[in-house]
Amino acid sequence: MKPSILHAFFVLSLMAAQIASTRSAPFVNLDFELARPVQSLPIPSGKFVYEPIEQLLPGWGLTERNLTSGVDSPELLIGLDLATDGGGYASLRSRFFRPIPPLAGIPPLAGNFSLTLVPRHPLSGFGHTEYELFQRATLPTDAASLVLAVLGLPTEIFLGDQELSVTYTQVGTRLSPTGAETWPLYEGRADVSAWAGQEETLRLVVRIDSPAVPTLDFSTLDSIRFSPEAVPEPGAVTLLLAGGALGWAVRRRRCAARL
């Protein structure tokens, strides 16, 4: 091979490698199963454990946004099997998690880990807050819908700045820590076909909009995935979420409907 041809081949190969390196990787840890806790499990009763988000939520970022003051606070540490009285915390829940009533929370919805977000209520006295979980990556080329499991507060889902219309269907129940209530478990599904194969930021937002303190003041998320199956046509699923005293209807474009 002549030097000039060899040089051109080398330059083209280098350019191809640089282009490939700039492409976003696929989404990772959508089911939260890649957690690497430093603390051995189970955690001794009464011990409060916080660990770096890189250990407990690899691939994800998390922001607590104070809607009262307008201040955004990146969460560098999150709880591990944490349950406290009051809102304003995020915790990864393991299969060893056992809440002490009346504190809310349940073990993972699936697998070894779930993520629980507990925003502050508008009348909490510490500011009205919301949590935003996010990750930027490339959607699968065959992605038609995004699917996730949700227990508790409904979740607003965005791709970039575009809010997605989410359809919720009850797929099961979970027993409350006291055993006195049965909480509905929902599958959320949103159309993402317009973003298939594209790089974008996935954002999931959880907050309490109700002027009254809801029975379920948290959102537990799990089993997020992209599916090649399309979202059912509107009207194909009847949506009514009966959450005890909540009775929030959730067939709204914004998931700020009351649970």
Give Rg in angstroms: 21 Å
Broad CATH class? Mainly Beta
- Sum up the overall morphology in one term: globular
Structural class: mainly beta
As a percent range, the share of helical residues equals under 10%
Strands, helices and their partners?
Elements: H1 3-22, E1 50-52, H2 53-56, E2 61-66, E3 71-74, E4 77-80, E5 89-94, E6 113-118, E7 129-138, E8 145-152, E9 156-159, E10 162-163, E11 166-175, E12 182-191, E13 199-207, E14 219-227
Parallel strand pairs: 4-5
Antiparallel strand pairs: 1-4, 2-3, 2-7, 5-6, 6-14, 7-13, 8-12, 8-14, 9-10, 9-13, 11-12
Plain-language structure description:
- The chain has 259 residues and is mainly β.
- It has a single domain (25-227), classed as Jelly Rolls (Sandwich).
- 9% of the residues lie in helices and 35% in strands.
- It has helices at residues 3-22, 53-56; strands at residues 50-52, 61-66, 71-74, 77-80, 89-94, 113-118, 129-138, 145-152, 156-159, 162-163, 166-175, 182-191, 199-207, 219-227.
- It has an 8-stranded mixed beta sheet.
- Strand 9 and strand 10 form a beta hairpin.
- The longest helix has 20 residues, at 3-22.
- The protein is globular, with a radius of gyration of 21 Å.
- It starts with a helix and ends in a 32-residue tail after the last strand.
Q: Main attributes?
A:
single chain; 259 residues; mainly beta; Jelly Rolls; eight-stranded mixed β-sheet; six-stranded antiparallel β-sheet; 35% strand; globular; disordered C terminus
Summarize this entry quickly.
This protein has helices at residues 3-22, 53-56; strands at 50-52, 61-66, 71-74, 77-80, 89-94, 113-118, 129-138, 145-152, 156-159, 162-163, 166-175, 182-191, 199-207, 219-227. The chain has 259 residues and is mostly beta strands. The protein has a single domain (25-227), classed as Sandwich (Jelly Rolls), CATH 2.60.120.
